[in-house]
Specification:
By secondary structure, the protein is of the alpha/beta class. It is about 35% helix and about 20% strand. Helix 1 crosses helix 9, helix 4 packs across helix 5 and helix 15 crosses helix 16. About 55% of the residues are buried.
């Protein structure tokens, strides 16, 4: 097994996740099998209880693991299926060490960070790296490990020490360290400054790790004299210094690495370069086509995203990616209009009429309306109004998780005239509980107690839109993350009024998919289809939300073989942590006319 470690220096948010994913892509293009591990040095056991404002979205895996959003990048870039163990946290490591101590496994020894915690980290990495994630038997050839945070963070010190030891455990030729650092350009002098990277590498070396490759983030390609200076002061050959400069969309990052021969540098360090190596020249023709297609798109499709966390696009990262995969498959440029759900409510009309008018204007101009998942009652009334507007005006609507429950509540209030219809999440005393707490859920413990992971949904109506979108299969496996569900005791009343529950679980008691048969496209799903969307294999429900349904059904062959891409998205003129490798030149997804 070969290992590639990706670390970051100077500042956070440089794009280590995209860099690690792109390294995986280029190695896979060389004919190698690749797996990935993300190390998060926080004390949380997993990301499940973290606020989206704190840490972005929680990505859900097939096995129910609630993990860092970077694992979503790995899965999308590499088309693999990871497990919860591919996300290592301080919480998991310390919990495992303490459990062993309580069992007496350390035989009375004093349990210390070195060697017990560091050994646990190394053993975890070796064990998980052997697990196949690409559907094939046997372990991968290379494991790409991303260390979260920045070199020098106190919470990552045990991992730094463990990885230093690990490099000696696996031996020379089996470990390659790629350090992502910043080379800023001061506007005053217009000169690329190397000092931050020099200090970052010095700190890394002082902790026992020596970089083999420098990946330098900058606004433009590094000048030759800058490369030579970095090589001299950081003790890294100039041919092993690559620039990750601003590009139109992040599908260009693997191409940047290839063009600068980064794969050759990595393969040399790993002793995979040469006549007898299984590695070959990277074949990235499909990636090149995707990047070029993304840059060339011009016909817009406007999607109004009505949510609670619209101020932070990372909170809906997988939803954005799924929309992007779908729109590119339809050869349309995605325009995301962020609509804060609270701005649609009557209270906002009184307190801030400009925000109210702007929100409704965006909603009325949309080609489709999407209400994603979420928790809590803030903005619920605005989401209900958005669902009602889509239903009454025959605008394509996709509700995910809470978005499906919102559609059910709105139908109960508007069509069945149940004015107090609600979810018990928002009103525990409602007389018409359309959405209820799941019987098996825990009301005392939050972490890991939801209905999580891949679950099977069976289609109960053959001639329905969702079944056709999924290729007329009898069932579909999608990932879930929820505590509340549609009240099965009220289903008959909904169906008599025209709301169709086309998908249910294996018991037939848990509602998974709703549709309005007489609407062009009004679909709600309890699961999260965004987590399994891939660039070349977009989720069908997203594809239908981005285009005319009949046209989508007629070109399913194009969708299944189409190109998808991850490109820049604009929001309020600010680039978020996710899109640090994008430019603001207008090529990409647009959100209210600005990039994120």
């Amino acid at each position: 097994m070969k290992y590639v470690l990706v670390t970051g220096g100077v500042v956070s948010g440089l794009g280590k996740g995209v860099t690690a994913s792109s390294i995986g892509v280029i190695l896979k293009a060389c004919g190698l099998r690749v797996t990935s591990i993300k190390i998060d040095p926080y004390l949380n056991t997993d990301a499940g209880t973290m606020s989206p404002f704190e840490h972005g979205e929680v990505f859900v895996l097939d096995d129910g693991g609630e993990v860092d959003l970077d694992l979503g990048n790995y899965e999308r870039f590499l088309d693999i299926k990871l497990t919860r163990d591919n996300n290592i946290t301080n919480g998991k490591i310390y919990q495992a060490v303490i459990d062993k101590e309580r069992r007496g496994d350390y035989l009375g020894k004093t349990v210390q960070v070195v060697p017990h915690v560091t050994d646990a980290i190394q053993d975890w990495i070796e064990r998980v790296a052997q697990v196949p994630v690409d559907g094939k038997s046997g372990p991968a050839d290379v494991c790409v490990i991303e260390l979260g945070g920045t070199i020098g963070d106190i919470e990552s010190m045990p991992f730094i020490e463990a990885l230093g030891q690990f490099s000696y455990r696996v031996g020379a030729g089996n470990f390659c360290l790629v350090h992502v650092s910043l080379v800023p350009v001061l506007n005053v002098v217009g000169e690329q400054k190397t000092k931050p990277t020099q200090h970052s590498v010095r700190g890394l070396r002082g902790l026992g790790l020596t970089p083999d490759i420098l990946a330098c983030r900058s606004t433009s390609a590094l000048e030759d004299n800058v490369k030579q200076k970095l090589a001299q002061f950081c003790h890294v050959p100039s041919e092993s210094i690559v620039t990750l400069y601003d590009v139109p969309n992040i599908w260009h990052i693997p191409l940047l690495l290839r063009d600068q021969k980064a794969h050759e540098a990595i393969l040399r360090v790993l002793n995979l370069h040469g006549y007898y190596s299984v590695a070959k020249e990277p074949d990235l023709r499909e990636w090149t086509a995707r990047a070029e297609l993304c840059d060339a798109l011009h016909e817009p499709v406007r999607i109004a995203m009505v949510g609670k966390y619209t101020g932070l696009s990372d909170a809906y990262l997988s939803v954005l990616k799924a929309l992007l995969h779908a729109s590119v498959a339809l050869q349309k440029k995605l325009v995301v209009d962020w609509v804060p759900a609270t701005d649609l409510e009557d209270e906002t009309a009184q307190e801030n009429s400009d925000a109210y008018k702007a929100a409704w204007k965006l909603l009325k101009c949309a080609d489709g309306i999407l209400v994603p998942g979420g928790f809590g009652d803030r903005g619920v009334q605005g989401k209900i109004l958005a669902a009602k507007f889509a239903r009454e005006n025959r605008i394509p609507y996709l509700g995910i998780c809470l978005g499906m429950q919102i559609a059910v509540i709105e139908f109960a209030r508007s069509v069945l005239n149940m004015q107090d219809a609600n979810s018990t999440e928002f009103d525990t005393h409602t007389k018409n509980p359309c959405v209820i707490f799941m019987p098996e859920g825990s009301k005392t413990h939050m972490g890991g107690t939801m209905r999580l992971g891949s679950r099977r949904t069976y289609f109960h109506v053959n001639d329905c839109k969702s079944a056709k979108l999924y290729g007329n299969k009898s069932y579909v496996d999608e990932r879930h993350r929820h505590r509340y569900e549609v009240n099965p005791d009220m289903v008959a009343r909904f169906e008599d009024a025209g709301l169709s529950f086309t998908g249910k679980d294996e018991t037939g008691q848990r509602m998974e998919i709703i549709e309005l048969p007489n609407h062009p496209y009004y679909v709600g799903v309890q699961f999260h289809p965004e987590f399994k969307s891939r660039p070349g294999k977009p989720s069908p429900v997203f594809t239908a939300a981005c285009g005319q349904l009949e046209g989508v059904l007629q070109q399913n062959h194009r969708v299944s073989n189409g190109f998808g891409a991850k490109i820049s998205v604009y929001q309020n003129g600010h680039a978020t942590k996710f899109a640090k490798m994008t430019t603001t030149n207008g090529n990409g997804i647009y959100s209210n006319g600005m990039q994120f």
